[in-house]
Specification:
heterodimer, A: alpha+beta, Alpha-Beta Plaits, two-stranded antiparallel sheet, 10 helices, B: Rossmann fold, six-stranded mixed β-sheet, four-stranded antiparallel β-sheet, 14 helices, 17 strands, globular
Chain lengths: 305, 445
């Protein structure tokens, strides 16, 4: 019997001593963690997308607590309410920014932009862009290997097998900018998520001269400048044979859309013309944008309708 | 016979044009000169629209130390300075010249007479090479004057002449050796003078016995120049592989240079261009291009003026054969696909290759089966499967740790992979990214 008692005694004593050591050490070397960091981290999406500029959500939460104001701190994946909740925890005021969404500025689908060659190398846009100019006559447009799809942490981009172009799900898109960085052709841009998700943009990044661009793609921007003249708000600029609509200045009047001879300028989520009932917005140019969902009502916008 | 020790593959040689004499191609109607034909900064145009130029007139100046000038290969008027789609399918600025007649700069010696005596000093020769816009003609297009000025702390003892031409199909260097051996030997003597050494080795693969015996008979009376036949293995023409094959020395990983092991390597084409520049005052505006392919009617070796559209070369060789799947600038291993037939011949165009569709198709990619054939084939001793996977996952750190910058992009791994993985494509991507990261890091320091 005694050996059992000895064993219990020895083990028990060892456990007791070690437990004491652990207790003392944990007290002595305790790392003070601000409880607010944990609270903020819980509010964040936890996708570690890097859209805020910090290496992961935990680092962002820490930065929020340490920083003296919320200037420059913005989780691009969070809605404005979440940012306000974070601000409430840290006790700083937060400016409600304009919500943005990723927009694919290429409409060169298989029908609009015929394939001239076959690319059969590594399935990556970056590798394809390094190798050559892609399979079509357009050396600026979408390569179609889906680097943006792989980059998206929120499953907001999918390739449309029919057009061969990426499609952004505007409800899932958090505008973290991962796809913008992933695209070697710099086609994807973060644009303002206007009232009712309405957007007007030039769906092309081709900087070639008119005839070359037109030959390469049926809906490519030819740099004719008609839209620049048509715009009453000076929102459109023409540089390197390519029109660009400044989304801060654009008032969504859609005059440029009617004027564009190439149908390059797209207006999405607008109701069909002549019908003045904006109750159920519909996609006017369905080939690029995702199917319309119920629009965000909380979005604060300055746009005039 | 010597060869390099690790890795290498044996692709089919397919030297269809080995016995075709060099023919001269007619002048184009318009010549196009991309400003970036070499490694380093693009050249800066020094002519304007409407200027009249002659054959050999300098039309663009070097844009920095690591750069090369560009000379007109035709006489006529500068039509415009605009962008052109180059061989890689990217838009690059270029000078367009409309051809009128064939009037040469009077300073160029156009006779066939061999000039034996070189009275210029070392610095004069280097200046002359720099002014002639000479770059490595093997395909990498490294400015030659930079290569001939090795860092001062390195002692050079051997000049190696790269006459290996291990790339299948290509025979431009082979023909050059057969038709201009004397010029090449004088060129070697010029380089030896510049480097201040007295030993040169011409490395030739054993599949060119005629060139070996011809050069051996020509060099038997010349002291210091040796012809070394090498066992056939791809990529023997790689600078580091050739140094190992010839001298047994191994070049350490980057940033070490061949000069660190006492060697300078020059391609035979470059040697010939140096001869012409120094002795005949002729800048680099012509080169020999092998136009070849299995279905081609008249595969040939052509002496082509730079700026000639590739389509003209193909036409001369009997037109593009039906069912051509791929058009390649260079050889099948390291060449780049040509997206556009109208792309001009540039300093680095060693060949134009047409591959039938059946041979061109890449079969479906399968998963890596860890057979390590790529590891065995890699002449640099790298692990291509690992580098490709790191690249696929955008793990640039892992790629850098595993020596991706040592990769010479020879394509042995990809050609040997039983799962048909596009290893080289991935490695090229990672090499590009890691190179950018390293440059950014160095710039910060």
């Amino acid at each position: 019997m005694s050996f059992i008692l000895t064993a219990i005694l020895v083990l028990g004593l060892t456990g007791l001593v070690l437990g004491l050591v652990l207790y003392v050490v944990s007290r002595k070397f305790k790392v003070e963690v601000d409880p607010r960091v944990g609270q903020i981290a819980e509010l964040l999406p936890g996708a570690n997308c890097g859209g805020c500029g910090f290496p992961g959500c935990a680092a962002f939460a820490e930065a929020c607590v340490k920083s003296e104001s919320m200037d420059g701190l913005k989780c691009s994946a969070c809605k404005s309410e979440v940012m306000q909740q974070i601000a409430a925890i840290t006790g700083h005021a937060v400016e409600v920014g304009v919500e943005k969404v990723a927009v694919v500025r290429c409409a060169g689908s298989c029908a609009n932009r015929p394939s001239l060659r076959v690319y059969d190398g590594a399935p990556s846009c970056a590798a394809a862009a390094l190798m050559n100019g892609g399979a079509t006559g357009c050396f600026f447009g979408c390569l179609g290997c889906g680097d943006c799809v792989k980059a998206c942490k929120f499953e907001a981009i999918k390739m449309d097998p029919e057009t061969g172009l990426p499609v952004v799900d505007q409800d899932k898109c958090t505008a973290c900018g991962a796809c913008v960085k992933a695209c070697p052709r710099m086609i994807i841009e973060l644009r303002n998520k206007n009232k009712l998700d309405r957007r007007v943009y030039v769906s092309c990044v081709n900087k070639d001269k008119g005839p070359v661009a037109k030959k390469a793609c049926e809906v490519g921007c030819i740099g004719c400048g008609k839209c620049v003249k048509a715009c009453p708000f000076e929102a459109i600029t023409l540089e390197n044979n390519l029109a660009y609509i400044d989304f801060e200045k654009c008032r969504l009047c859609r005059k440029c859309v009617d004027e564009c001879p190439q149908h390059t300028i797209l207006a999405v989520n607008f109701p069909p013309k002549k019908e003045a009932a904006p109750a159920e917005p519909e996609v006017q140019e369905p080939q690029v944008e995702a199917p319309v969902q119920a629009p965000e009502t909380s979005v604060e916008q300055k746009t005039a309708e | 016979m010597n060869t390099f020790k690790i890795g290498g593959v044996h692709p089919e040689p397919n030297k269809l044009t080995a016995d075709r004499k060099i023919e001269t191609l007619a002048l184009p109607t318009q010549a196009v000169f991309p400003l970036s034909q070499h490694i380093g900064a693009p050249a800066v145009p020094c002519v304007q629209k409407g200027d009249t130029v002659r054959v050999g007139t300098r039309i663009a100046e070097p844009g920095g130390f690591m750069s090369a000038s560009i000379h007109s290969s035709v006489s006529g008027q500068v039509a415009k300075i605009d962008s052109v789609i180059d061989a890689s399918g990217l838009r690059k600025p270029a000078i367009f010249i409309d051809v009128e007649g064939d009037e040469w700069e009077p300073s160029i010696d156009r006779s066939d007479k061999l000039v034996l005596q070189c009275n210029r000093s070392r610095d004069e020769i280097i200046e002359c090479i720099k002014n002639a816009g000479i770059v490595g003609m093997g395909g990498a297009c490294f400015p030659t004057h930079v290569k001939l000025c090795p860092p001062k702390e390195c002692t050079i003892d051997t000049l190696i002449i790269n006459a290996v031409e291990c790339e299948p199909y290509l025979t431009a260097d082979h023909r050059l050796m057969l038709e201009h051996p004397d010029e090449i030997i004088i060129g070697i003597k010029i380089i030896l003078k510049v480097l201040g050494i007295d030993r040169a080795v011409i490395g030739v693969e054993s599949n060119k016995p005629d060139a070996i015996s011809l050069l051996q008979s020509k060099t038997s009376m010349v002291s210091g120049i040796e012809v070394m036949p090498l066992k056939m293995k791809y990529p023997q023409g790689g600078e580091k592989q050739l140094i190992e094959a010839v001298t047994g020395r191994q070049v350490p990983p980057p940033p070490a240079l061949p000069a660190n092991v006492g060697c300078v390597v020059q391609n035979v084409g470059t040697v010939f261009a140096i001869y012409e520049a120094v002795m005949k005052n002729k800048p680099l505006f012509e080169r020999i291009v092998t136009v070849t392919g299995k279905g081609l009617k008249n595969p040939c070796n052509l002496k082509v003026r730079m700026g000639t559209p590739v389509s003209q070369l193909i036409e001369y060789a009997g037109g593009m054969p039906e069912g051509t799947g791929k058009l390649i600038s260079g050889g099948p291993m390291m060449g780049r696909p040509l997206l556009d037939e109208t792309a001009p011949v540039v300093k680095g165009t060693s060949g134009v290759l047409m591959i039938p569709e059946a041979d061109a198709i890449r079969r479906e990619e399968r998963n890596c089966i860890r057979c390590a054939k790529c590891v065995q084939a890699c002449p640099m001793g790298l692990e291509p499967y690992l580098l490709a996977t790191a690249s696929e996952r955008s793990d640039w750190e892992c790629a850098e740790e595993n020596w991706i910058m040592s990769c010479i992009e020879c394509g042995c791994c990809q050609s040997t992979c039983p799962s048909r993985r596009p290893l080289l494509d991935w490695v090229r991507l990672a090499k590009n990214r890691v190179g950018g990261i390293i440059r950014a890091r160095n710039a910060k320091k």
